[in-house]
Amino acid sequence: MANVENRKSRWYFGGLGSAGAACFTHPLDLLKTQQEGKVNIVKSTLNIIKQQGILALYNGLSASILRQLTYSLTRFGIYEVTKQAVSKDGQYVPFYQRVGIAALAGACGGFVGTPADMTNVRMQNDIKLPPEQRRNYKHALDGLWKVARYEGVSGLFRGAGTATVRAVFITVGQLGFYDQIKMLLMQTSFFDDSLKTHLASSFLAGTIATAITQPLDVVKTRAMNAKPGEFTGVWHIVRYTGRLGPLGFFKGFVPAFVRLGPHTVLTFVFLEQLRLNFGILQQK
Description:
It is globular and about 60 Å long. Strands 1-2 form a two-stranded antiparallel sheet. It has helices at 13-33, 41-52, 61-86, 95-112, 114-125, 140-151, 160-186, 195-225, 234-242, 253-278, and strands spanning 7-8, 280-281. It contains 10 helices and 2 strands; from the N terminus they run βααααααααααβ. By secondary structure, it is an all-alpha fold. Helix content is 68%, strand content 1%. Belongs to the mitochondrial carrier (TC 2.A.29) family.
């Protein structure tokens, strides 16, 4: 039997893992979006279920999956391929190099995933708007088509700058720190390449990623959800948010952690299981 610690991940495993995780965490993502209002997360959940049924918690699921199959597939793919390319004879890549690789991968993934990300945010936001103001996209592809038709192709990339910057930080927090934490844990006698290590590493990486990306996430959500002409640019949104006080940049932090934490854990658990069972066997 092959040594499971001697398998490399295939470039697309991260995208598949992220898409699988989204199927479980999408309701948490949707509820995080609702925090733009004054209703707390528990009351918001109950209101949605009472008014529209439990399936309403999965509004925009198609856009969420499409986002992972563009955004996460790109960033995980670039990160994994580049990391393996610079690794000599399977040696561990230094942390500073992995941070640089993660930043590059995140930038590419953030830009590529912007159209699906914007559609995802809009479909989730529909649930809290009055019926006459809803966009009523049938699914992700319908949303992309309507944005391109009525707002132009450039409209698909509204908020791309903020999304790209945010993706850089979240990819560094998730991928770069996950590898580093996993390596440190496995250097002790208490951890090996097992589910226990994957859970601990991914939980800590998710915590770090949430902390460094929440301010950008607040700005990104406002940019993507803004009506045409509401803001003149990113700095206009930053100034607007700043007037709410320093905590304005961390609005919805707890729901963001509740969503990003489990998604990060599930993503890496799925990724590692794919690697251990279907990864590329390294020859020694």
